[in-house]
Specification:
By secondary structure, the protein is mainly β. Helices cover 0% and strands 51% of the residues. Strands 2, 4, 5, 6, 9, 10 and 11 form a 7-stranded mixed β-sheet that branches. A 4-stranded antiparallel β-sheet has the order 1-3-8-7, with no helix packed on it.
Amino acid sequence: QVQLVESGGGLVQPGGSLRLSCAASGLIFSAYAMKWYRQAPGKQRELVAAITSGRTTNYADSVKGRFTISRDNAKNTVYLRMNSLKPEDTAVYYCNADSRPIGTRVYWGQGIQVTVSS
């Protein structure tokens, strides 16, 4: 059974930092691209950052220069370091494991709340 468990969310003031973690189990972690999505109230879910099995990264324009995605294959964990947080970063953040295009399987975590507010 595949599980993706997010942690590290919470309430932070504007300009602050958080680090999200997503611990994966039940899959060959190193073979998956790992992604972070977010969904704000009333908005569609959007891709925030991704890291391939080869560690190539890409980011949404809105977070470039502020967020950093990384992975530790030995710990089956992906991270999202978020700096200079803004109120518009407030959302539920979801971890995603994607085996495409080589595979067909996609898995989601349960989501974790990040609130940026003074």
